[in-house]
Amino acid sequence: EPEKLLETAMIKAKDLATLGHPYYHQTKQLDQEEVIKKINSGIEKITVSAIMPK
């Protein structure tokens, strides 16, 4: 149905726009990598000190 082509294309475009792009995920991961390491290190120190206090 040619008259519904634009409507169908717009619906599909909106659907595709919600998908995560691999580059977005990779960039976000690289951007947050150092901070996440510091957070995990801090959590590990807290956990270890709770289990084995000085």
Counting helices, strands and paired strands, the structural category is mainly alpha
* Computed Rg: 23 Å
User: How many β-strands, per DSSP?
Assistant: 0
- Per the principal axes of the C-alpha atoms, what is the gross shape? rod-shaped
Order of helices and strands: HH
Number of helices: 2
Mean pLDDT: 86
Low-confidence stretches: none
Question: End-to-end span in angstroms?
Answer: 75 Å
Q: Helical proportion? A: over 70%
Beta content comes to under 5%
Largest sheet: none
Describe what you observe in this structure.
This protein is mainly alpha-helical and 54 residues long. The chain has a domain at 21-54. The chain contains two helices and no strands. The protein has helices spanning 5-17, 22-51.
Structural topology:
Blueprint: H1 5-17, H2 22-51
